[in-house]
Amino acid sequence: MVSEDQPQNNDKKLDLGRFPVRTDLAREAHDMAVQERGEDGVPGVEMDEYEENGITTSWIRIHDDQGAKELGKNPGLYLTLEVPDLRSQDSKLQQRVSAHFSDEFQKFLEKVGVDLNAKVLIVGLGNRNVTADALGPFVVQHTMVTRHLFELMPEQVESGYRPVSALAPGVMGLTGMETSEIIFGVVEKTRPDLVIAIDALASRALSRVNTTIQVADTGINPGSGVGNKRKALNRETLGIPVIAIGIPTVVDAATIAYDTVEFVLSHLNRELTQTKPTNPLDPLNRADVKELQSQEVSPRTGKHVLGMVGTLGAEEKRQLIHEVLEPLGQNLIVTPKEVDAFIGDMGKLMADGLNCALHEAVTPENVSAHVN
Amino acid sequence: MVSEDQPQNNDKKLDLGRFPVRTDLAREAHDMAVQERGEDGVPGVEMDEYEENGITTSWIRIHDDQGAKELGKNPGLYLTLEVPDLRSQDSKLQQRVSAHFSDEFQKFLEKVGVDLNAKVLIVGLGNRNVTADALGPFVVQHTMVTRHLFELMPEQVESGYRPVSALAPGVMGLTGMETSEIIFGVVEKTRPDLVIAIDALASRALSRVNTTIQVADTGINPGSGVGNKRKALNRETLGIPVIAIGIPTVVDAATIAYDTVEFVLSHLNRELTQTKPTNPLDPLNRADVKELQSQEVSPRTGKHVLGMVGTLGAEEKRQLIHEVLEPLGQNLIVTPKEVDAFIGDMGKLMADGLNCALHEAVTPENVSAHVN
Amino acid sequence: MVSEDQPQNNDKKLDLGRFPVRTDLAREAHDMAVQERGEDGVPGVEMDEYEENGITTSWIRIHDDQGAKELGKNPGLYLTLEVPDLRSQDSKLQQRVSAHFSDEFQKFLEKVGVDLNAKVLIVGLGNRNVTADALGPFVVQHTMVTRHLFELMPEQVESGYRPVSALAPGVMGLTGMETSEIIFGVVEKTRPDLVIAIDALASRALSRVNTTIQVADTGINPGSGVGNKRKALNRETLGIPVIAIGIPTVVDAATIAYDTVEFVLSHLNRELTQTKPTNPLDPLNRADVKELQSQEVSPRTGKHVLGMVGTLGAEEKRQLIHEVLEPLGQNLIVTPKEVDAFIGDMGKLMADGLNCALHEAVTPENVSAHVN
Amino acid sequence: MVSEDQPQNNDKKLDLGRFPVRTDLAREAHDMAVQERGEDGVPGVEMDEYEENGITTSWIRIHDDQGAKELGKNPGLYLTLEVPDLRSQDSKLQQRVSAHFSDEFQKFLEKVGVDLNAKVLIVGLGNRNVTADALGPFVVQHTMVTRHLFELMPEQVESGYRPVSALAPGVMGLTGMETSEIIFGVVEKTRPDLVIAIDALASRALSRVNTTIQVADTGINPGSGVGNKRKALNRETLGIPVIAIGIPTVVDAATIAYDTVEFVLSHLNRELTQTKPTNPLDPLNRADVKELQSQEVSPRTGKHVLGMVGTLGAEEKRQLIHEVLEPLGQNLIVTPKEVDAFIGDMGKLMADGLNCALHEAVTPENVSAHVN
């Protein structure tokens, strides 16, 4: 939940290293670990990746505690779709991504061991009154729910469907209750076999906002770090698998500034070292974004172009920026101006994808006739 | 819940008398019982009423099974506010009614034995996507929730407040779950001392739509009569008091037709019998509505002005109309064209009233500073 | 505009005959005229009708003043679609009606003499804050506008499109200006060749609410009868054709009561006279609605079943009901409870239909890719 | 209009200096000019400023072409309110700012020579479907319109009011028409004495987003720079005064990055030079934001801490950042995550302020009873 569960303006004094800036995305953590180690792989972590039609799909499995420590993420299975062009509001592309998401999500369910008849509860986290945080409630509203039909008139349900229920519990500031209190109660009474929780995330990279989808079987922890009172939602606490789906929708000013400084550094480094560039004028070739982000700049060049600041490591730079902006009250959390359309598009994409993945009888061709 | 839990178009053949048309309002049932008996009181039922500033307030207590049978309502306490001019969208009147509702509701809490520190869960029933059914969710959205503050930082909560939580669970067609399943689960996990459930009702009198508020300690029965599977929410099932607040927001075409026929009958009767009329041209004198509604028409006059139909009793007329409209698909459930404004006004009125009644520190003067 | 331009609660005393209750629908006026005359045709009026797949399509041309007088409508061309099942929220049917509307509307344009390249201004009348009156603004929001592309980058516009602009000017209570003042000004500055005005209508038959679409080339008269100051929008005043599209979305309580009384009369008449009924229990056989509405009841039977009231003519009955309800403040204007969904569905149907009809390159198959 | 009229992603290649990054705010331009000149005043420009209760009010008059050239703004009168704490969502402060805005706006009207009876047309620019751009339409919706009462029933209008009309014409992408075409037409037909145009602006300083209000008598130029076809709305083109009210609601990533780099520079400079800081940990002391922004950093220090980049001038740094981000498609235009609440609060503040300023009979105490 973007809205309330990650209060980012509380800590007046940052202790470098005490709060290492972590990412919610396993894919990002993996890239950083690889970059740091200077090797191809990370011990205890397996990763597969392929790119097709502008969609990069990666599967990461963190096998053990070592892998977990390296990536700063819990052991488990992570699926990530990266689609840089999703922000272009191209409805054809959205449909393609939706169908692809559906296929991959079905594979994910199989790998997690969820069978075709498993009863599913979809939980839409977030605040419906804050557009940037309304992804979860939006998906719930467009979810095809069927559980009541199985309960009340089972003989009338055709084959090809499974029992699905859905709830957008609202945020603590609006309900006065922990999200987990509500979900625990509902799960106990309605006995699903699987929980799918959908949430808008804070991103640590501007380029990921509304372009990346992560699916993980590690559950969620609403309001992690804000106190001991909140319980995680996962297989241990609920007794059933909890799959979390997250999309970055906001970013803080410090991240934007950091990313930009890195872009500028790489850009100048490239000019200084005469690296043959990919064509930076081609906006469709978004691979350059990644390349610039991952490009190594020698300390000497760094110092040359950015002085003292240029010699800082990545985390040090992040901390410096954070430390300056935060006390000034200028580390705003922001979202693209087009947030209304983005949330609508992403929510539709994801709801359609889930509806197709969860019911055999629902396909990309007929999904729109199944829901309103 | 207006939306789904009272399907009114299913029964193709009506068996006169098998489904006697009942009212949700104790006040209405009481008036009908008195009219039928031709006496002042009803055995087993106590009733107090006073009118002030355009607001008629009545307290009805159904003491025992006899009273319950006479009125067709469960034994318990019923508070009713009737404000015919509420539809005039007069903001001053709305504030006055809100403050009066707050006062009476506090008395109601005392009578029910709920103390000042009792923890309250407010449940907004209904479908937020159907404006006429969105009263409950609207009130929840404007409720001042405080429970999380008591839980997370009790030392910082000033005196004059109590722990309040709130939830709009959504309707079964959107969640796939019974409302009671969700509420049972949430009550078990969050342990309130009292549930207040808010719902939009179907009215059986056009004149009551958006003008009447009923408070009862008898709980609610979402989807009563639609099957055995749904459990009531009341003191027996939840173990804590359940106060239901209801406002009629819709009416069916048959009711409109019946009411009109009665108005016409009374009107003609009056003309024929030379009763001195209250001025029927004065729209502010809404007392005439009630008078016309309750006026007795002799069978002879009835026959004269309305023929065969005029000789039917009230229930027979209702059944005839219902029986004709229903198979034609014309017994639409309707709501005033101004429903968007009415729901907004009534929801604000009720949320403000509840916020004042539940927290000593909140008053009609400062309530708007407490909520958004 | 439903909202403000037809104040129906002002006239305290009705003078029978001075304000004959008229209908906005030529089709309805035609049926009434035929019924009154007891003949097949009406002098000066031509009418064609066919039924297919649950859609009744009729074309009426009022040739001259005699026809105009008979029907109480201006001379001109009227196209009417009647689809009783539209209220069933069947998305397949909606698409079928949308495509059919598009075909018929293209014929209408041809008959009116509007060519393929004519520049079109679509005007959405009504109040977007009042759901029942928001049809016009809703259609404007889903209209494919292209005029600015023709103006700013004509060379980039592919063939198969024409210049379309769109405006939802809002109602006088929100703008302080007559709708016609705004439209006159905009037409003068932007010079379209045709105005299409879309409006929600008040119906005089419950069965027509959200089931009937009328297209007319006679223009519109926002707020007709409320004063001399408002000018009509039509070919005379604007110098270009003005096509009005209207859908009944509201009805007043008096109409519901009148319709019901008629249904009851016909029903009892039928039972008394042993007419073999169409099966009144079959809700899909909506032809019975029309049949019951048009069935003649002999005065003797009328008197028998409805007494004095049964002997009144149609207009007299309407006036009596109106006269009784109005001063009581109970002649509410109402709309079906499902108004939110109905307006969304009808608006989508009409916007899709117009987009297909106005641009050769847009078809029912690709229309959803053209708009959001 | 944020949404469409300032396409910022078109120019692939930036020519440093050809598109000097300009500000919409005279106050900001004045500060920059003073900083560049190193003097107190700017020739041809008069400026008054005072601070009270957290609100900084400044009046700037650009007298002549020299002043206009220095500031890059048209000659005219500019009123600016700066309230850093407005983002804290404090309803008391909002009311205080609203009342202060009303007072200052009345002075503005006097200085511009608009008398108490002048007829006013309020134009809300922007796209109601894009929350960050919906300020204008929101204000229009909460404007107290009265013109129709003066036109239709002048004898019933009490004293203390003036004729006000209001229109939110929508953006070109939704109407297919230039905003100015619509406004020209409406002004011609309805003949107001004054136009007040309200718009959301793109800011060039993160700290100004939702904290600054500018009033100017120089009119507006929707879509300035996008082509010759769009006409400005001002006294020359309309023949009546045009007052523009603007509030920055969005900012681009490049601006955030630039601001942050400057904050970091100043911060490090301060540490290096041992300047006694205002307490940077006190978030309420927002004066430090301005101080840090305006602090001069010596080229030598600049080079030390930021290397090559540190030696660039302000405009050069901006251009460099822009030049790097733009081709990568990462120069997103963003708005604070809380945009829904901010637009609601600012719109309410401004609508209340205008309603009080335009009608003598409306005061901060009774304004809420005048509007919905």
Automatic annotation (TrEMBL), chains A, B, C, D:
Summary of the function given for this chain in its UniProt record: Initiates the rapid degradation of small, acid-soluble proteins during spore germination.
Organism of derivation: Melghirimyces profundicolus
Domain of life: Bacteria
Enzyme class per UniProt: hydrolase
Family of this protein: Belongs to the peptidase A25 family.
Enzymatic reactions: Endopeptidase action with P4 Glu or Asp, P1 preferably Glu > Asp, P1' hydrophobic and P2' Ala
EC number(s) on file: 3.4.24.78
Subunit field text: Homotetramer.
Regions that span the bilayer: none
Maturation-removed propeptide residues: 1-24
Biological-process GO terms, alphabetical: proteolysis; spore germination
Secretion signal span: none
Entries under InterPro entries matching the protein: Pept_HybD-like_dom_sf, Peptidase_A25
Keywords: Hydrolase, Protease, Zymogen
Alphabetized GO MF terms: metalloendopeptidase activity
Post-translational modification summary for this protein: Autoproteolytically processed. The inactive tetrameric zymogen termed p46 autoprocesses to a smaller form termed p41, which is active only during spore germination.
Gene of this entry: gpr
Record flagged with keyword Hydrolase: yes
UniProt name for this protein: Germination protease
